[in-house]
Amino acid sequence: MSLPWETVIGLEVHVQLKTRTKLFCGCANKYGADPNTLVCPICLGLPGVLPVLNRQAFALAVRAGVALGCEVANVTKFDRKNYYYPDLPKGYQISQYDRPVNRKGRLEISMPAANKNIGITRVHLEEDAGKLIHPDTEGSSGVSFVDLNRAGVPLVEIVSEPDMRSPDEAHAYLAALKEILQYVDISDCDMEKGSLRCDANVSIRRPGDDKLGVKTEIKNLNSFKSVAKALAYEAARHASIIEGGGKVQQVTLTWDAIAEKTVVLRSKEEAHDYRYFPEPDLVHIQADAAFVERIRQALPEKPAARRDRYVKELGLPAYDAGVLTGDKELAALFDKLRGEGLAPKVASNWVMKHVLAAMNEKKIAATTFTDKTRRIAELAKKVEAKQITGQTGAEIFAWILGTPETASVDEHILKQGLAQVSDAGALEAIVRDVIAKNPKVVADYKSGKPSAVQALVGQVMRETKGKANASVAKDLLVKALEC
Amino acid sequence: MTRHLYPLFSLRMDITRPLVEKVALLARLEIPPADADRVAAQLGRIVTMVETLNKLDTKGVEPLSNPTGLVDAFRSDEPRPSLSRDEALANAPDKVEMFLRVPRVVE
Ligand SMILES: [Zn+2]
Question: Which residue has the higher pLDDT, A348 or A135?
């Protein structure tokens, strides 16, 4: 390897907004419906129709901008981006050109060495295109099928600054972006369903150079893995061209995930000329300060901030805080349990241990537990107060899962005889019996192996079906063995 | 906001034959080669006429993209019925089962 190269990466991410309807018409915004059943004269681009902006889509675009620390424009407007493609019925896409909803934001990514801020150039609102299907059945090699259900679905396009310096940083940026957009509930961000799509710009230069190298653009990266792989491939391709004395050509590429290489789509000469001009069918939008402030106030706390707060204010270990805030619903469950009067560490332990185990085992979501927090908290308090043992607690937790919130924990404990036995009188007979039945263990203990008593405690637990208070049992055993 | 963001509309330009060919391609219009020079000359005269507007002093006048002066026209996020598929595809030049059918394009 000769001199080192610095990779410079910027990403353009398209995210479908979680609205009920499309951006400019009342057709449902729904994935997976029968082809060409969610279309109307507006999203089909029939003559004589007029678009009207979906208020919720606009609010979500502002929310995305606020979540990414952007400046929200006082006045924003729409423009036509003109090009012909079979998935674009009108012959233009309604997008935003010079007055996007949001500009100048940032997103923090955490890398092994240090956290880093990636600049966000703009976040603008636009409509999605339809979907093309390229059938491979016999006789259909020369045709494509068009499904226009997706045409007109609201998107935000999030354009980053060229601030990333490695495929790993690009991967971390995408992960952080997805996390925050899901957290503020503006999108599912499901790459498999295409609700998050990514284009990448990449160039290389010598470390310390101010000037950017010639960039290439990779379109339609459809998984996190493809993004990292395609960028690594492309940066290496640039390096080998320049090191071989050549020049990188400014081209648009696509990633062939099977061959694991980039393929040229079009050259600079063939680049689209979109001839943007103001959309005359839509009026300007004024996002007044009060509207933006309302959205800011209603914004859920960002994962990173919540994680910090859990550590600093609630005293949770960083690991617990990370797991809890990694899933918004899990964090909400934790907060709800604290609201039921559990100490932070106790609430965290129950979520980290029992809730996560049940979620993994039964493949259920954290929300399954939302209406069971009163009883889970009641149970946790009983275990804390040593009214029942940890083992019995786990069994009752499973019982809570399978019963309605109206079923009483107290009654269940009473009926099943699950209360912890801490009363020395009730345990003494069992202790005497266990000592009589295990002469070998007793001999071990007496010959100087104090740890042997644990085996006897285990026997007492078995005899009481886990209900004995282990430390009371141990004290009684030691007392009996010493005399 | 500057007016130069929309170059096609704001810059004085000569309408040449290559420009006509480029615009025709972008608009997916077929102009017979024999007609291209004539079209270029005609378009040139039209653009020159429109450029008369440049004589107007617009210093301090905000560009206007919508003549109504209205702002903030929204609709609520309430679903409305879509067309049936038969209606939606009724005008399609070519279709197959549930889809519109077009010559293959892969990008
Ligand atoms: Zn529609």
Answer: A348
Q: Are residues A259 and A380 in the same domain?
A: no
Ligand 1 midpoint to CA A305 (Å) = 39
**Are residue A182 and residue A98 in the same domain, yes or no?**
yes
Q: Which residues contact A481 (CB under 8 A, 6 or more apart)?
A: A435, A442, A445, A446, A453
A154 → chain B, closest CA residue: B77
Interface predicted TM-score (ipTM): 0.81
Nearest to A93 by CA among A107, A78, A71: A78
* pLDDT above 50: residue B5: no
pLDDT bin (cut points 50, 70, 90) of residue A2 is low
Q: What's chain A's average pLDDT?
A: 91
Rounded to whole angstroms, the Cα distance separating A40 from A451 reads 78
Number of domains in chain A: 3
- Evaluate whether residue A90 is within a structural domain: yes
Whether pLDDT at A25 is above 90: yes
Q: Any idea which of A95-104, A409-418, B24-33 has the lowest mean pLDDT?
A: A409-418
* Ligand 1 center from residue A25 Cα (angstroms): 5
C-alpha to C-alpha distance for A81 and A79, rounded to whole angstroms? 6
* Predicted TM-score of the model (pTM): 0.74
A156 with A242, same domain?
A: yes
Which segments of A268-357 are extended strands (E)?
277-278, 285-286
Calpha distance B53→A50 (Å, rounded):
29
Identify the CATH number of the domain in which residue A428 sits: 1.10.10.410
Question: A78 C-alpha vs ligand 1 centroid, how far in Å?
Answer: 18
Q: Chain B residues with CB inside 8 Å of A98's CB?
A: 1, 5
Domain residue limits, chain B? 1-64
* Residue B2's pLDDT band (cuts 50, 70, 90): very low
Q: How far is B10 from chain A (nearest CA, A)?
A: 11
Domain that holds residue A172: 6-291
Selected residues 204-223 of chain A with any CB under 8 Å from a CB in chain B: 219
